[in-house]
Amino acid sequence: MTLTTAAPVAARAPWRVLPLVLAGNFLSVLDFFVVNVALPSIGRELRASPAVLELLVAGYAAAYASGLVVSGRLGDAVGRRRFFVGGMLAFTAASAACALAPTPLALVLARLAQGLAASVLVPQVLASVQGLFHGRDRQRALGVFGAGIGVATVTGQVAGAALVAADLGGLGWRPIFWINVPIGVVCAAGAARWLPETGSGARARLDLPGSALLAATLVTLLLPLALGRDLGWPAWCWASLAASAVLAAAFGYAQVRAERAGRMPLLPPALLRMPAMRAGLVTAAVFFVMCGGFLLTTGVSLQDGIGFGPLTAGLTLAPYALAFLLVSLTVRRYAARYGRAVVVAGAVVAAAGLAGLAVQVALAYPGLTPLRLAPVLAVNGAGQAMIMIPLFGVILGGVPAARAGVASGALTTTQQVGLAVGAAGFGTVLFGVAEVGGWRAGTLAVLIGEAVLGAVTAVAARRLP
Length: 465
Fold this sequence. Notes:
Layout: H1 8-12, H2 14-33, H3 39-46, H4 50-78, H5 80-100, H6 104-121, H7 123-132, H8 135-166, H9 175-178, H10 180-194, H11 208-231, H12 235-260, H13 269-272, H14 275-306, H15 310-338, H16 340-364, H17 370-396, H18 404-437, H19 439-461
């Protein structure tokens, strides 16, 4: 059985509903970026520890990763429009809870809910694009999708900083979450009315044990990474890290058993036997750990280290975001011609930008100015766009079409896990080293680590198809 469209007018003109669909992905990306420049302000108002600030970023990405594949399969079976509308409403409600949060714990829990809602919402975006568009139109729509990521990156950094600096109604950082509410309500209502219902109608094949083991692995890994430094690394932190390794092994074993039993595992081991996927997962994991670390630590270092206000910090990051946007608009055509070479070159460029930042920090911190930082930040933004925008397409080009959906889910999950681990791990390094040796030492340590990961990304990307 095939789920038919419930909105024939929209089915005849899918371009009219594309903005509604892409708004879901836009908000999920926006809310990853918008928090970074607001972290120091949140810390001051709520008296939140550095560990809490790390969890606001890492927790969102980890919750996002935990539900992606299951939500995608349910959307395929039950109907993508239903899950899109439900996910959008849940994301809107979680955003309101973030804006109203009276305590650090309440804000962390609301961010976890926001990440889970994003995991319901976002898989329906690309799946709906695939279902609504065909041929050349599909490629154009995917190009708009990629550009939307760039726009969300720019908007998250700059608009978030402007909202915090404006202190609208004396609300400080809270408007960065309130802006999601009217957008979410309008998009949910529009999608319920005009978005066609697409999906296979087939019975959903879920791997709930695998999902539970993945979530448990992430929790036992990220909690000690985020909280260990503040608590003095008690015994439970080390026990939790050890448990994460055991749970990761149990996850791998469960995936092998599920595949042998003819079920559909979360990460089919057969995928890992494909050279394209092995290289792709390694490349994606390393890159997104680097990216997650950079996004959290840079915003904090600019404000708490150098002393910039939120707006100045946001404007300082604008060259990074604008370069990312401009490159994202053009890089697909070069990736179609040169393939993995674009990703390799992007990793080299990003590593060079991070190394340049490290040199500037070593020589002039904390006397750096936005103008002095602009060139190396732009180089880094361009390099990251050269990796991020074509990466999935390059990897999936080496995967059979019948496996593309499962492979895409595995890659997206790897992306969010990498962002979470990068935010928690590099955040811990930044705050830990800064506490002992000052902000210059902390910032230099994370930039060197991120530059090394950029170089490793370049090496790993050479094995892509």
